[in-house]
Amino acid sequence: MQRSKAAAGVEVKRVIGALCRLLAALGLDPVPAPEAFRRAKFGGRPEGDPFWQLLSSILHMSGIISSETSSQLRGELRKLVAAGLWQSGYHADWIYGADAGSFCSRDLLLALGWLLAKGVLETLLAGRVEQLDQTLLSSAPEKPEFSADLELDAASLRRLQWLMGHLRHRGRTLLSTIGARTRALHEVLSSSQVCSAAPSAGRSSAALTEDCFSLQQLCELLDAYVSWKQVEKVFWTWMDSVADRRLCDLRDRTSSQGVSHSLGACHQGKQRLEEMLRGPAQQQDVKSGDADWAVASLPPSLSSRLSAPSVHQMCRARLQAEQRLRRPSEGPHGGAAAPGELPAPQAAQLLLQAETELLQRRDRRRLANRKQLQGLMGSLDQQVFIAL
Amino acid sequence: MSVVTVQLGQCGNQVGQELFDVISSDAQDGQRKTYSSVSRERFFRQTSQGDFEARAVLVDMEPKVINHSMNRAAKSGRWRYAEASHFSQKQGSGNNWANGFRVLGPRHRDAVEELVRREVEHCDVLAGFIPMMSVAGGTGSGVGTFVTQCLRDVYPSSFVLNHLTWPYGTGEVIVQNYNSVLTLAHLYQLSDALLVHENDAVHRICSQQLNLKQISFGDLNRVIAHQLAGVLQPALTPDSCGAYSGNPLGELVSALACHPEYKLLSACSIPQMASASIAFSTFSWPALLKHLRQMLIANTKMEEGIDWQVRPPPASAGRTSSLTAGGFNASLANLLILRGKDVYSAETGGFEDPAIYTSWLPPAEALSLWKSPVPFDKYEKSATLVSNSQALLRPLDDMVRKAWNMFASRAYIHQYVKFGISEEDFLDSFTSLEQVISSYAQLQC
């Protein structure tokens, strides 16, 4: 188990490395190291994070934020990134400046995932290829501008046809001129063959070297893109786990807030715990029936509604049994306490213990489910899912 | 850059021989080294013995005219045709376009293409082809159209300028209008431009301008050759940056025939006179150009009898139909070639008048100027105008109308059907020429 987990970690690191290589080949600078991705998954202070820079340059290069916006917001990286993400359709609390307390570099990682899922890589790739490959004619003309007074009448059409013909004739003239030059060059070279003019001519040509360099870059870029495409799946699984972790953190936070608030009223706390229990309880249920594995991916709110009462009742009964066991020893201190109630500190401790235990159990279940799901997906690779 | 001439049929072989003759004598003068060498490079190649051989391929279905032309060339002592550059058969094509296009052309395709290929291989750089032929005859028009099609296929990026000789309106051959319709309709798709000389107009030049009494085809051909050489001899063009133009055909076509519906070019030159009177004449650029401009707008091919009443219509007034008699001749594009003394001081403003051009092409694009300080063909100063204008609208309209009248009664159609040209082919040709006529008629709108 440990070994496979480590292997998976290495695999993820390799995949993220491929992504980093592709981002660097796309001309983005600086690109965070794969290790930074891993650290970001577990949260961290967002200030001075390399992801700020990465996000802003992606948003800039893919044209999501215009150069005017970026010049206006110079120096305010956070605002710039927030504006760009908002324009790309990404919404999160931290973008609006709210929820500053829980904001960490994981949110930036998720935002990066959003941009990648939106196909920003392909946009950047197309732009970069056009830039590097000089033999390509630009596929999209530079904003064809028609003057407002252009009339699309017969006369303009005829003039256009004339100009087209003129252009075509010029092209043919140019072709024959090039032919003449080639012929002359060939004569010069073949008459001076002894001094082997060709390689030195090639070396001295700065333009040729430049072309060669950009072609090399192009090859590297396309290579990086292909290798990224091959392992992309793994990355998205990992990104999924990042998203899960964030959700998980959010829930942790709300639950811990709940506990601190209800320390005085254990009954309330217990109820909350019961609510919390329903999620894992559901997963417990799933364990028995393999066919029902899909339910695990339901959002927690929905699965809580589907929770099976039997397990819930069982856990509750055990909790109460524990409570009863402890009661005699606590008798002298808490004699006034009503039956079924515990003193606050003990209750809190108990609840926290139970919570950690349950959370651990839930995480293990989730991992097992995920693996099961991946196995199933792998075996169904040939099939196409059609949503009905 | 070199030009390969393909002489087709009786007419093409005669005009071609005259053209090479004019060019070789014009280029002979030792004083003008660059001009001569450019001209020779363009039209001749030098053999190892130092003789000049024309870059030409001669094709006819009868050997008589080819032999005659070759003998005349050899007799000139300045140049000759290469020994193996001609192709001839024993039997003619009987003035039947279909026979030439469908039977004789395909049958001898390989032989003719081989001759052309060899001639092209002799060129350092090929600028293009000038197939020369009559529009009405059998071999010239039928085989010529087929050969033009082959050139287009084999050399798709080269320029092809067809030189056509238009028959007398009164008729040499009964089916000349059929042949002309078929030739023009096909060449309009194949060629880059069609430079046309009308026998009628040239005949008038011979009789009234040159004062010849017994006018032979040789006289007509000399006038045509003089005008053609005036166009094709080296000149300084706007693109050539102070040197003689490298690609005369390309620049000619770019200047005049960029629109696929307008490819009919006509030429006229000034002065033209009997060689005996040249010595006693003086010329001035303003007078020459004034006359030439009036010749253009009144559509007269010679100085004699210009109608000075014709004026370009004022821009505001609605223009009348172009087919009205004695009307003003609207131009699409003009190429003015000036040769001779003080050529750089010549004032060409008269040709930059927007009123003489169609409304959709500004004069700056419609007028091109070529100049050469070298006097041409004995004239101290001379000007040649190649015009893409309505000049040929009336003869074309007449010809199509006559052919249509014959076609309506299905006269002689069976002779064409026999060789694989169906009535549908005729109808297609009529349709495309009607389109050309309508396009040119609209130039004045």
TrEMBL record, chain A:
Domain Tubulin epsilon and delta complex protein, residue spans? 89-243
- Which InterPro entries does the record cross-reference, listed alphabetically? TEDC1, TEDC1_dom
Q: Which Pfam families match?
A: TEDC1 (PF14970)
PANTHER family recorded: TUBULIN EPSILON AND DELTA COMPLEX PROTEIN 1
Q: What is this protein called?
A: Tubulin epsilon and delta complex 1
From TrEMBL, chain B:
Q: Which Gene3D superfamilies match?
A: Helix hairpin bin (1.10.287.600), Tubulin/FtsZ, GTPase domain (3.40.50.1440)
Record GO terms (molecular function): GTP binding; structural constituent of cytoskeleton
Q: What GO terms in the biological process aspect are recorded for it?
A: cell projection organization; microtubule-based process
Q: What GO CC annotations are associated with the protein?
A: centriole; cilium; microtubule; nucleus
Looking up InterPro entries in the UniProt record yields: Delta_tubulin, Tub_FtsZ_C, Tubulin, Tubulin/FtsZ_GTPase_sf, Tubulin_C, Tubulin_CS, Tubulin_FtsZ_GTPase
Signal peptide stretch: none
Lineage top rank: taxon: Eukaryota
Tell me the protein's name: Tubulin delta chain
Kindly list the organism's lineage: Eukaryota, Metazoa, Chordata, Craniata, Vertebrata
